[in-house]
Amino acid sequence: MTGNFLSGAWAIAKIHENAIKAAIQGDLFQSNVLGYSAQLPDHLLKAADYSYEKAWIDYLSINGHVPVIPVQGTMSRGYTYDNYFSNTFLMKLIYKAAEDDSKVGAILNYNSGGGTVDSTDEFNAAVAYLASKKPVISQITFCASAALWSAAPSTEIMMGTGPLAKIGSIGTIYIHTNVSKALEQQGLDVQIYRSTGSIDKAKLNPYEELDEETEAQIQADLDAANKAFKSGIRAGRGSKLTSDSIWTGKVYNAQDAIKLGLADSTGDMNKAYKRVLQLQ
């Protein structure tokens, strides 16, 4: 587009609007009868400041300067059935918001019961980085387990005004189901064959009894993850925490969460936006 004559009507996607405006206002579109090069000119890229993450950050922003980043559904490194943004992509948005001079802060909008341990520590680090640059308000509808781990470094955590706004569930859990008896009642006999020497291959499965070694490994993994989880909460909330009772895995309402130091205030999205502006 930048290397051809601009003629006729053009349809521009909403998320590209700011980039196109910047280029037009800067008189950076130039006709080129020889066609266009594969690489856009540096001055055009700089004026547009275009990237996929930049486009989304602009699209999600209130008044162009405070992005509202949605942390919804099951959190995972990859996409899940109820989460249209993966942790990987959300972290890219967070880092982009931190480096974008047009953004004065950010709101993380939580409605998540948590998710996988994998990548949550990285998410926590991304939020901590953003909070070191600009004010970050985590606005909570539901923020449990991995969601709280990721939200902990926020400048402030603001509970939603609804009666069911909840936060907590600090801890790690693994649920194992042995279906061997159920299959036996149905007349099904599952046989598992492993290659010679692969005696530890897929020992954690729903068809065989777990041996003591496997059970011990599960417990060790849970405890290691929980240690990291608790460390992230302590680092993020610091002296605001008032009681060790929060480590049991309980979920709290807004009033109790504020009392225990897991949250700072209550408010809706508009209040969260105004709070970002106050803290910048």
Automatic annotation (TrEMBL):
UniProt similarity note: Belongs to the peptidase S49 family.
Domain Peptidase S49: residue ranges: 130-278
InterPro entries (UniProt xref): ClpP/crotonase-like_dom_sf, Peptidase_S49
Superkingdom per UniProt: Bacteria
Record-given protein name: S49 family peptidase
